[in-house]
Amino acid sequence: MVVIESISNDYWASTFIVYGFTILRFIAMATVRILLGIIWYTLIIWCNVFHRYLLKEHSQPSGEITNQYCRDRLVKLAQAEIGVREKTNANDGERVEAYLKTAGLKKGFPYCAAFVSFIYAKEGFAKPRTAWCPDLFPKSRITGQYLAGNVLGIYFPELKRIAHVGIIENLRGDWCSSIEANTNPGGGRNGDGVYRRIRHRRTIHQVADWINKERSVP
């Protein structure tokens, strides 16, 4: 009887140990899975936050970065119009008339200022909206900075006013590259389409900044 009782006790002890280790292993594996799940969930949240941060930084920048973003966009939009030509050399044609429409006019009118208004409108600016060159240079917009996207004005003594405008592309030394409408290879103010022009700073009468938030109200 003593031998049988001893064997029985050993059996139950062994069984307890085996089941105990099994339970402990199950608990350990469950704990590891929970920890891995927490780590994985944390990584997903962190990646989403980081992705939103990148989108905010690059898609909807702010402050000075916003200004530069708009300037780059304006120049690209203007560059895309290079090569547009009038239909019958009478300030007409589908694209020219689209420029004029932005300023509330129909075909037949000079459109260099309307072109500037058209480009700004495509970028989402509420202003300017004019086909009259002097309107682009109120005192609150005048600047000495030849930044991309700013508007340059050419003065014509015989008219005693700024009578031709364009969008600044860049400035290299004293030479300003601009994109202008209603002009020609010679730089006239009554040309046949949209061209890239290179002008010396001395020939530019004024520059207007319609982008800077500090100049948001004429």
Tell me about this structure.
There is one protein chain. The chain is α+β, with helices and mostly antiparallel strands. It has two domains: 1-60; 66-215, endopeptidase fold (from Nostoc punctiforme) (Alpha-Beta Complex), CATH 3.90.1720. It is built from four helices and six strands. A six-stranded antiparallel sheet has the order 1-6-2-3-4-5. The longest helix has 58 residues, at 2-59. The chain is elongated and about 110 Å long. The model is unreliable at 57-62 (pLDDT under 50).
List keywords for this structure.
elongated; six-stranded antiparallel sheet; 2 domains; alpha+beta; endopeptidase fold (from Nostoc punctiforme); 218 residues; 6 strands
| Total helical elements | 4
**How far apart are the first and last residues' alpha carbons, in Å?**
110 Å
CATH fold title of the largest domain: endopeptidase fold (from Nostoc punctiforme)
Give the number of domains.
Answer: 2
Q: Mind telling me the C-alpha Rg?
A: 35 Å
Biggest sheet statistics: 6 strands, antiparallel
In percent, how helical is the residue content? 40-55%
Mind telling me the CATH superfamily name of the largest domain?
Answer: endopeptidase domain like (from Nostoc punctiforme)
Strand percentage: 15-25%
What general outline do the C-alpha atoms trace? elongated
- Unreliable spans are 57-62
CATH architecture of the largest domain: Alpha-Beta Complex
**Beta strands, count:** 6
Q: From N to C, what is the helix and strand string? A: HHHHEEEEEE
User: What would you call the structural class?
Assistant: alpha+beta
- How confident overall, as mean pLDDT? 85
